[in-house]
Amino acid sequence: MSTxxxxxxxxxxxxxxxxxxxxxxxFGECKAxxxxxxxxxxDNSFDNSKCRLQSKDYLECRMDHQLMAKEPLEKLGFKDLxxxxxxxxxxxxxx
Amino acid sequence: MFPAPFKVNFLQQTQIxxxxxxxxxxxxxxVRQSLCCPQVLLTRCVRALQxxxxxxxxSQAEHFLQRRLPLRFHTQSRGAKSRNRKSKSQEEExxxxxxxxLTYIAAAGVGMIGxxxxxxxLYRLYCQASGLGGTAVAGHDADQVETMKPVKERVLKITFxxxxxxxxxxxxxxxxxxxxxxxxxxxLAFYRAxxxxxxxxxxxxxxxxxxxxxxxxxxxxxxxxxxxQRLNPxxxxxxxxxxxxxPEFDEDPRMARxxxxxxxxxxxxxxxxxxxxxxxxxxx
Lengths: 95, 284
Description:
The complex is a heterodimer. Chain A is mostly helical. In chain A, 32% of the residues lie in helices and 0% in strands. The N and C termini of chain A lie far apart (39 Å). Chain B is an alpha+beta fold. The chains are: A mainly alpha, B alpha+beta. Chains A and B meet through α1 and α2 of A and β3, β4, β5, β6 and β7 of B.
């Protein structure tokens, strides 16, 4: 437990997120993208690597509707989805 | 202790003399004995002699006694003086020795106090270097997201858990129970929250990662925690969590057997004017 006051017991210290908090999507503007993403996950037995394109779409939707600060997608770790497929073997994540 | 009994004889005057000389030599050891003892013995002997021998012997013996008596006292006092000097020097020696010992002890005491003060920053440094106690390892870089490469061989299962405080009336649950990610790859997950009541409720959440040591590798890019989220009556929202596992997770020997990481969110009701302590400051 993170509240156990033992000396030497490993406890967890929560850290704030890097880019802060998502504003709530009260109007469900990006709900469609979310549904596609969830469907993709279910179809691929919840393997995230296979659904990165959908997650990228969802985040782009958020950015378009001012639900997320606009950032270049490289900064969000989608560099491999942005560029035309380079010749590096470990960059192949397109479903 | 005493030599042979007092033999009265003119020929044995030398003997007497020797005997008295021996006595003076033995005087330092005889100090503790009562002074009157030898005297008494001698006077008794002398009186015995008086009856038998002629007066001259008696007078001679007396003469010897008298002569020896002051000597005896003299030597006694001399011995006492030398004794005093010896004990004085000894005392001085003890004094200086005591002083040095006391100085050493005082120095050790002061050193201990100083060490206990210095221990606080030193321990913090040590914890950061070794990562004990789940403290955040210094050097968590936001630009790392851009440059990190996914470690495809290591597949981790992230399970999701949702909790709420007893008095919190939202319905809060994850939209997927688990997700498979690899370190170095950003991932997206969703929770759903619904306010079934007729009044708006403001919630605030915190999270927990188990196992604790893996928590330092769990980096959230963006989530919905630590800020007040307001839900209108009968409103339902999707709450995303955008995170990644640090690629260094694969190189940590302590994480070699870790395959499952559980992310747990807990929602609390936020009261007006309540200020929660900010995470990231060490208050534990």
